[in-house]
Write a structure and sequence with these properties.
single chain; alpha/beta; Rossmann fold; eight-stranded mixed beta sheet; 9 helices; 17% strand; binds NADP nicotinamide-adenine-dinucleotide phosphate
């Protein structure tokens, strides 16, 4: 699958390595694709053949676009690429917006919902924002099975994203579909509990598991 990842930071690098290693064709989209410091941060993780382009080119060829940019700027940034370029594509959104003081930026409508409202012809799926970048691509590194969530209005897009999650090592029974894009609020707001747990454990390398009720 052709995947365009917008953002060349911790998450962009990790997901590019994960999906590239699984045989997908990955291009990273950057605001400054020619900047030596961008390449210098990517090459040690992704090798000399890493593909970096501007945001427009990364979106143009992609079947799945990944939003790995700061959630505070994602909407205008994707707006600069344009609704027409994003139309019909799956937008896998991992972003969370944090204000300058560390509080959540999207307090009522989630970023996932705002993206779906702003780009109605794009199929937004929120996922992976409840785990650290390292865990996103190595769920098996934890001391037991754990849960990752899906939120989105388009069932086909969620199936596509579910397949990409499995390519990162998430088993089918570790993926919990929460429902429509409105449920992205819960995923994004989990960031507050995530930071609390990280503080208590002294590590971001953890996850939670949803334990279902026993039958009968
Ligand atoms: N880090 C995690 O473990 C983690 C976990 C869950 C969710 N998330 C979410 O995933 C998203 C990416 O996280 P990250 O840790 O990869 O962030 P990061 O290291 O700061 O990278 C974000 C990237 O976005 C691009 N970008 C575009 N516009 C930007 C702007 N105005 N200011 C700064 N960067 C801009 C930059 O790439 P270019 O300079 O190449 O354009 C930058 O490298 C965030 O929304 C975050 O909340 C992160």
């Amino acid at each position: 699958m052709r995947i365009g990842i917008l953002g060349t930071g911790n998450v962009g690098r990790a997901l590019a390595a994960g999906w590239g290693g699984a045989g997908h064709e990955v291009v990273l989209g950057s605001r400054r694709p020619g900047a030596p410091e961008v390449r210098a941060a990517l090459v040690p993780v992704l090798g000399e053949n890493v593909r970096v382009s501007d945001l427009d080119a990364a979106v143009a060829d992609a079947e799945v676009v990944v939003n790995a940019t700061p959630g505070t700027v994602s909407v205008p940034l994707l707006g600069s690429v344009g609704p027409a370029a994003l139309a019909g594509k799956v937008l896998l959104d991992v972003a969370v917006g944090f204000g300058a003081d560390g509080t959540l930026y999207h307090l009522v409508e989630s970023l996932g919902e705002e993206l779906q409202r702003t780009f109605p012809a794009t199929r937004v799926v929120k996922t992976l924002c409840t785990v650290d970048a390292g865990v996103m691509v190595a769920p098996g590194s934890l001391d037991g099975p754990s849960t990752v969530f899906l939120s989105g209005d388009d069932e086909g897009a969620k199936r596509t994203v579910g397949g990409l999650l499995r390519d990162l090592g998430w088993t089918a029974d570790s993926v919990l579909d929460l429902g429509g894009i409105g449920t992205a609020r819960g995923q994004e707001h989990f960031a507050l509990l995530f930071l609390g747990i990280a503080g208590a454990l002294g590590s971001y390398g953890f996850n939670v598991r949803v334990v279902p009720p026993t039958n009968g």
